[in-house]
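Ligand: pyridoxal-5'-phosphate. Inputs:
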Amino acid sequence: MIPLARPYIGEEEVEAVSEVLRSGRLSLGPKLQEFEEAFADYVGTRHAVGVSSGTAGLHLCMRALGVGEGDEVVTTPFSFIASANCIVYEGARPVFVDIDEETLNLDPDRVEEAVGERTRALLPVHIFGEPCDMPALMDIARRWEVPVVEDAAEAVGATIGDRKVGTFGIASVFAFYPNKQMTTGEGGMICTDDDRVAELCRSLRNQGRDDKGDWLRHERVGFNYRLDEMSAAVGVEQLKRIDFLLEDRERVAGFYDERLADVEGLVLPARTSHYRSWFVYVVRLPSDVDRARVIRELDDRDIQTKGYLPAIHLQPAYRSFGYEPGMFPVCERVASSTLALPFYTGMTAEEVDTVCEALRGVLED
Ligand SMILES: *Cc1c(COP(=O)(O)O)cnc(C)c1O
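Predicted complex:
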């Protein structure tokens, strides 16, 4: 079976986790601090706050910015559902805006039309590791005086010019689930230059405690969104490899680009002037192709693929918000035609060949 994704774990990670286990210090210890400092340094923000998942990080950002009942947050319907759920957790309304058909990211012109008096924040997602048009989005945010939270869960290391994504908004969130470019098992990171946001997030992830160290004093109602020491230790080791991880994934994407360039009707991932951090390799099938059949027939050949991602506004969980098919035509067209191919660090040229030959065969049927 050629899997859709696979983590890249070395002996260093195994050794680092063993060391933590032997130390007896399994939470709120030196590994978390080491991981946070190294990650802040890598992204280029003053603070990094480790959390138990990317979703938890997004939730804390909404809470820290005071997003609540009656507020609207402008975001994309073409994302993993967590980027919209974090808005709903706080009783606010996700206001979806259609995407750009090439980059699959929020279209700034449509964001401009959607922003209004109730807008409390913008939440762009760097989808599949391709940077959003942050200069344009930041310009809108400045004019409306609303904060921007970047969902950079799929985009660790991506850059616009020489600036990394995650440094544009007031805060940004990275995620380390096993299919991401780097993993901690479960885990996430909030990055910010804002002292107050950092302090609030540190408190909120830790049951609302302040930094004075009184374990049974709670300044605010918080959560248990802490990142444990074993996960942080894996994160430290993965971050040491980040240049290799990203370069190797770029290599695999290059193999796919080469081998699929001449397949008629197939749309390959956009190549822009930004540096994409390769999270997944997603193609768009010709509109007359039955995607379910393609997935099934590839699966019969032991190749795992997935329609990626479904439109959030059409999910059953979002029925009560009043969104309907046809409201975001670009997103819906994209969501119904995308196919994520097997893609992971260390994937060999032979494996890419196998996938591409099988895909050609299935498309010719
Ligand atoms: C993975 C992901 C998240 C959530 O991360 P978890 O660590 O799985 O909670 C959020 N947003 C996007 C766009 C993601 O891809």
